[in-house]
Amino acid sequence: MTSRATLHRVVVAVLLLPLAGLVWGALQDSLGANPVEVMTHETGEWALRCLLLCLAVTPARRWLGWSSLAPYRRSFGLLASTYAVCHFLVFLVFDLALDPAFLAEEILERPYITLGFAALLCLLPLAVTSTRGWQRRLGRRWIRLHRLAYLAGGLAVLHFLWLAKADLAAPLAHAAVLGLLFGLRRLPQRRKMPAKAST
Prior knowledge:
Layout: H1 3-28, H2 35-64, H3 70-95, H4 100-109, H5 111-128, H6 132-138, H7 140-146, H8 148-164, H9 169-186
């Protein structure tokens, strides 16, 4: 195993530690007076953080020349999807008791849940089609499909803002990072000047 592959696995393992901590805390009954709220907030915030890391890979490669980060984009995207699914499952199991009718009612009547569910729906096809096989099958359509990550980020930030109500520091910070990443993506990349031929 190369040092780069080892580092990649270590980074992924570190980003999975919060999820492992939540599972351990739930088993040990050590998540405080409202464990469901803790699990909901932590999985949601880590989903957004991993999604922002995923979106940061392309600007880092383009502007900083960190081409070795390319494999991380897929890993960060899958981690974002994993945390987002866990976030949804906590809500579905503990708040809605697996009631699909109640879920539909919540999605239709609570705008912040509508936004969060829409963000999840954007992430799921990205996770499914993240393999090289899907990339080959979809061709250029794969690139267009995976631009949904920015839409997912926008929806997730709005979901976070709407949910936060009074304490807006964290959602606004995430919104600022997303705005910066989107702005960097829109900037034209400076072309390298051809080297002058020696005389």
